[in-house]
Records
---
Amino acid sequence: MINNQQNPTWWRNAVGYQIYPKSFYDSNNDGIGDLPGIIEKIPYIKSLGVNFVWLSPFFASPNVDNGYDVSDYEDIDPQYGTLDDTFNMIQQFHQNDIRVVFDLVINHTSDQHHWFQEAKKSVDNPYHDFYIWRKPVAEKEPNNWVSLFGGSAWTYNPATDEYYYHLFAKQQPDLNWENPKVHEAVKQIIDWWAKHGVDGFRLDAISHLKKNQSFADVQDQEAAMNNVPGIDKFLSELSADFKHDHLMTVGEAGGVPVTRAQEWVNSKTGYFDMIFQFDHVSFWEKFTVGQIDVAMLRKALTNWQNGLEGIGWNALFLENHDLPRAVSYFGNDGNLRQQSAMALAMMYFLMKGTPFIYQGQELGMSNVDFDNIDQYRDLDSKRFYQEELAKGATKDETLFKLQKKSRDNARTPMQWASTGGFSNHQPWIEMNPNHRTVNVANEQADPQSVLSFYKRLIALRLSDPILLTGKYHLTDTHDHQLYVYVRESGHQGYLIITNLSDTPASYQITSDYRNLELILTNSSAEQNPAAMKLQPWSAYLYKYERK
């Protein structure tokens, strides 16, 4: 029975599954995933063993940025269904002991939201101060601030002879959190969804709420809009709203260092239960291409494990709707796709924190190699393509970067069957051709599949208290191949050994560990713990006792 008031920290002993509704399952064959489709697939989600889902936005929206431009927070985009479908979905998940977390986008709205439609009419309009406005300077933009989607962060509004600020697309004007009425309006939205059964929120772009009020030119664009001093007041007020409704919260907090995160997720005084940080995925280096350095990966993840130990809680992830597929970004999506998908899963999944799985990750879904810009749907990818060509880059060079890092890699339809299984209609974005072999139906029938491996990890993570409360300790192998760590409580623990490379490696388990028991591996190779010969992308999980 789900009761968040009686069990306010349920999210600690939990595994989350992120759903991108547009690409999950199309129930009415219009090429677009929908809420009835999600309901239809609840048995599959239940079979994974996860105990909560996080849904990317499906609120009313013109979909300039795939729903992250909300025009009405209390209504549903008709392409996904109705409010009744939403309430039914929440109820169906709850009946299956699965909690429901929504994406809440409150840094900005759509320019079609009635708040902005009113705001742009006149400086005297009651909604004008819901947004950020500045007069032209020398008949130009007020300052040199830029949008994360490229170009100026300011767009001119003739009716008021002002520019409005937008950190993202011009159709996504930023809310003015200096105005207390904005917080009041958002609080009403939070309360409304809480009354309708929502169990928590992921807070999109939450580290951007505060803007530098000098509105002066900046050399470092981060200083204008990310983790700006004074943001704590806004976050503290929001936190009280969430706690009042017994809601779990995950803040998207790019650019927030672990030292600040200690304040943000402090178990006693923090603003959120968890935050998503991006040190290990180079989030802001959106279109750079290069091999992941395992030594840097170890350092980044360990920094967060150690930094929040005894203070707050980590959110563990490798994929989401904004990132390329992990098996392509971190792993080997060629002949070692399965092996690397499993090794990466074990590497991150058993750390201290709450693991998140993005739809299709549990299958080892990979990047899609679109060879034409017309195949892309992502606003930012199309912007990047045009800007690169204008700089003199070739089409092939630019498409190569998009193939590696475009957000559309994560947004291709879920691969349910060898026929595709997502829809009987042309999907809104093309499916990855490898759906013929990489799909739910095939992997459900294979006990050695990536899907089966994830199910075992989930069951293990939720059943052993050591993996909930045990401390994380890195074994620094001083190389660029291995990621080895333990989760330990008292004299017992788990030893996680992964070779995150395309070449063999060696490892010796010291005599400090006794009664070693192999719990899980993705390799058929027999091992002598004292002289392990690790094949590329092999992973081993041992349970042990300390002397």
---
Amino acid sequence: MKHPPVLSCVLGIVLLYSSGPATGQTEAKPSTAAEAAPALEWSPDSGVLQSLESLQRALALKEGEAADLQQQLAAASDDLAREEIRRRLQEVRNAIEEQRRQFDGFAVDVDLSPFTPQAESKFDWQEQVGKLLEPILAEFENATAETRIIGQIRAQLNSVRKRRDLAAEAVHNLEALLARPASSELQARLTNRHAAWKRIWEEADNEFSALDIQLQSRLAARESVLDQTTGYARHFFQTRGLNLLLGIVAFCAVFFGFRLAELAVRKLRRTGSEKKFGSRLTALLFHVFSVLGGLGAMMLVFNLAGDWFLLGIIIIFLFGIGWASVNTLPRQVETIKLMLNIGAVREGEYLVYDGTPYRVDSLGFSAHLNNPRLDGGTRLLPVKFLVGMTSRPVGEAEPWFPCEKGDWVVLDGGQIGRIAGQTPANVLLVAPGSETVTFPVADFLSLHPRNLSGGFRMESTFGVDYRHQAIATTEIPDRMKSSLLEKLPSVVGADNLRDIQVLFQRANASSLDYAVWVDLTGGAARLYPQISGAIQRILVETCNENGWVIPFPQVRIHQG
């Protein structure tokens, strides 16, 4: 019986070790190849000898053919003939070499691959990708086979219809010519061509009818789109459903296994250690390996099951993810730095996001932002949204927003109102008269709101005529301050009045001007529009009571 070379080699090794020297004995080195052979000799059967006889005869024929070609090459005088003989001679020599290897394989009955030089093959990534895509393309080809056949029949129908119509037109034109008088020779030739084109038309018409019947039959037997989809899905899950289920189970087992391990490690850590770099790095690695490990487990299941279709889908998916990540690699690196709290945005710092200031409470896969002065001021967003931004340390006593709900503010331009609500998106301002104005946060902040609820100062300027110059720095400011102290509490409330200052400011072109400062508490903020007018009114009354003249702008005209 003939043994395959590999099996014979394995059997020879087993027999060699089973019949070798006992443990502890010294093995003598063989001096010849015969001494190195196994103790159990191989006894070839008649089948092996018959194969060798056949190979010998084939080798003799090929060697004789090579000798004849060698003689022809020596006798040839034409360069073209010599080149052709050399080509045939090389083919015969290659065949002889292959038959000699076959002869040795049968004769020695051992694996000859270690003695055969292996040609180095270069890695061809296109070929490897083609092998990977082959089972996927075969699956899609199988799924769309009926549709493609119907499409091919329709294409053939269109081609045959065109030929049939042209042939019919040719027959019609020839019949028109035959109806007209002509010579007998011309009539005979036209009759011959008419018969030929009529035969062409009949063949095309018959072919068209056959194709049309075939098309209608396939369309009638064709399932609806829903039935086709359902049938393919049923076939898919019948053939690959178990493999897919096992792959999903393997992915989930590894994925959630890593997540449970992360939770266990997190519980073992001391409170507050999650803010450290090592803890952040460990959490990141657990998340990464949970996904990669799950995908690796799924691919292993598909490989063990021999399902190259599902395995190819996963590999192509991973290739797509990797290719897409190449262009976004710098952004991915910045995202990882943010997650590790070593990026441009740090925990506990001041960050302006969408025009609104926030405190960065925590960074991880998600970023927790908070503004304690805003309704709904807590935001949770993916950390990748913070790539390209920069935070800074919070200043000492730095407010997170210029006002709170219920505060009175005055904006650039003099608009005043009470804050009815403020969110990360909008600020609602109720103006005097109950008019509600909505400002986007960014627009509101650009108007530099002044918060009056914590107290404020009203500044006013008032002037008197130069004729009162003698008492301008002594009597006049004292009486103005006394009048304000006496009459202004009835307007703003005594509890809301903190201080009043009346100071000589400057000698203007036509008046002696005084700076009036009135410090008030936040309780008087709602009266802000009336206070300035009340101050001016009280000062005018004081001038009337004391006979002081209030100047007005004067224009002097000089006649040339």
---
Amino acid sequence: MFKFRNFFLFLTIFIFLFCPYFLIKAQNVEAEVVFDSNQIKNQAEVENTENESVDNQKDDINVRNISSIYLDRNTILKGYTVGAFDNYLKLSLVPGILDNDTEVLIEKISDTEMTFPWMLKKISSVVQFEFVNKKAYDNHKPFYIQLNYDEQDLNYKQVFFYDKGQNLWRPLPTKDFPEEKFVRSLIHLPYARLAVFSYPKTEISGKASWYKFKNGDFTASTVYPRGSVLRVYNKANKKYVDVVVNDFGPERDKFPDRVLDLDYEAFKKIANKGEGVIDVFIDPLLIPKDSFGRVLNVGLGINSQPQIDSVSAILIKEKNWETVFEKNADRKMSVASLSKLLSTLTFFSIEENEGRLEEIVKYKLQDEEYNYQYFNKWQVARITLNGGDELSIKDVVYSALVRSANNMVETMVRVSGLSRDKFIEEMNKIVKELGLNSSTFFEPTGLDKKNVSTAREFALISKTALDKKIIADASVTKSYKFFTRNDNSLKLRYNSSELVLNNNYPDFKIIGSKTGYIDDSSGYCLVTRIEVKGEKYIAVILNSSSRDQSFKEMLELLNFAVFDSKK
């Protein structure tokens, strides 16, 4: 029995993916009625009582269009398609999907009752279906839905269902039929609110050129990530080829209408070489997840605001210092190595230090010994140096910010022209001059858990620090190497921020970034500053559960900044 059920599921998915025009032909029963507000209210109250076991229960509702279809035992044995609103929504069910008779309610939901994903475009009405008899469906056998959309849209699309419990829209596996303006999906829910959303700038139609690279069924794309499998149709002759994305291109700034650069071996399967450029339609068969578990920047759930699990976060538009997003932004928390931004700012607040970058200084072992009162030697990020090693102040500053080397921060403090105690005093003086009352710093590296601030306050500290070009430049340097002047020993270190290392974002430019972590007391911290069409935004995340999580959520905040910039 187990093997038979797996075979049934496999066959269903196979038909969905590889037989695009398959649709169960069966008895179509359709009725359409409009209830007055009292009828609707009573209906909602009854159904809310009956559906207490369903996660996504219905809201109190105003006047809606409702299609009501009753499926008796004889009907469900035949296989059938249920359609409503001139087949705007269809439910296609094979025999055996339902175990008992049931009424099926299909409703159009007003947009005013919903919130929608901020990074996607809604191109259909919100339609809700419900099997009134919940015992008729056991949720184990998927069935098809077909949903129309209202406007011709040549971007990638998916059907999403609304998860009311989490206030999120969640994607379903979807196949698009753009010429007919509908999509089809698999679902295994007895109740769902559905809508079609398209992904801006993710084209499924355009022009394709060719180039010689790997001599196989490959393509370059600026939109679909490496590893994506695309079925590419030549619109002129309907021939198609399945290709894997293995490169980045073509140059969209020079050829804005070109969506793909096909490997010559793939191109010649659907067109003549001499054509050079052809009109194509793209059917994405597989789009892999990125390192953060998202597909095309969309996670397993999305809504009108970024979904941030970190304890505290804020996104600020620097013009007028406008808060775009916040979560626990005034909670006082440990900021770990983010402290180094303030330390470096303090160093350069001493006017004469700005002209000392090429000055050679000697390393002292006492610089790293300060660190060991907080953690063991092997636990502390540092640059390995010997006492007496010679390096420039620029080497010190860049090592402190690129590598987050704690011993380099202490070297910077020692050569600043101030005593260590006076330097720390100056750090707190700068904080007070900024008008911040929840930020206190006990040492310059961030190893002390008592270095605390809030997301809101540290956003201003970070902005002030990153306004200094030397600090901003160092914070976004992917790697930094230098040679000690006394023995020509090479020191090479890479930036601790994955966002910086992979700084290739089409919609914004990272102009400042710093990570932070000491232990569970601080969690993973991250500050990032970006520029979007001349506007600057700064974001802070405090106490994330993992480094990857902090990067994932920061990227969502930065994309939300792009969204905000378009308002």
